[in-house]
Amino acid sequence: MTESPSIRPLAALTRADLERLIAGYTSTAKYTVSKIETEAHVTLQLGLVPLPAPYVKRFDPIDDETVRRYSELARNEFSPGAFDGDRLVGLALAERHAWNNSLWVWEFHIAETHQRRGLGRKLMEALIEKARAAGFRIVVCETQNTNVPAIRFYRALGFSLEGVDLSLYSNDDTRPEGEVAVFMKYRPS
User: Smallest Cα–Cα separation from 5: which of 71, 67, 91, 79?
Assistant: First the structure.
């Protein structure tokens, strides 16, 4: 970093920006997810387990529709970016859901070159402050049971794990090599 990165509104996004920032993650642990369902009870359980080898997730190239949608989100007041000079090094793409007064964060990423320096915290705190000022009752982030670094990051900022979707990505998300969607939530008021 040349100087302290700044947080400011996104004005535009390019495919190159998105593909550089939305790259993937590595985790040395994961949460196993199990479900027991009877007539009287349903139990979902998550258990943190170390992995014998790091789990490396790389995201697919971004298609034209996603570039278009994310470019639209970048222009709303709830999608700040982190900039090192003029270079975009972090983004939070979020969208208002008026029906339940929530702010959904679709993408939250910091360039690998700028991670573990407090920039992610600064960007998320700016987003939370915008949510608070707008009167949102909750901020929602979705990640995977395999993305333990993200879950730890959100928890450190006061988010809690409040939801699990066993079939968001496929009909086989709970298989041992699968990924299960987990929802982290923060109440800004």
Answer: 91
pLDDT at 189: 81
Distant-in-sequence, close-in-space partners of 165: CB < 8 Å, separation ≥ 6:
173, 180, 181, 182, 183
Nearest to 125 by CA among 95, 159, 149: 159
- Alpha carbon distance 93, 70 (integer Å): 7
Q: Does residue 1 register a pLDDT over 60?
A: no
Helix (H, G, I), strand (E, B) or coil at 175: coil
Q: How many percent of the chain have pLDDT more than 70?
A: 98
Alpha-carbon gap, residue 104 to 97, rounded angstroms:
7
Domains of the chain, CATH where assigned: 10-186 (3.40.630.30)
Instruction: Quick: pLDDT tens for 39-72.
Output: 999 999 999 999 999 999 999 999 999 999 999 9
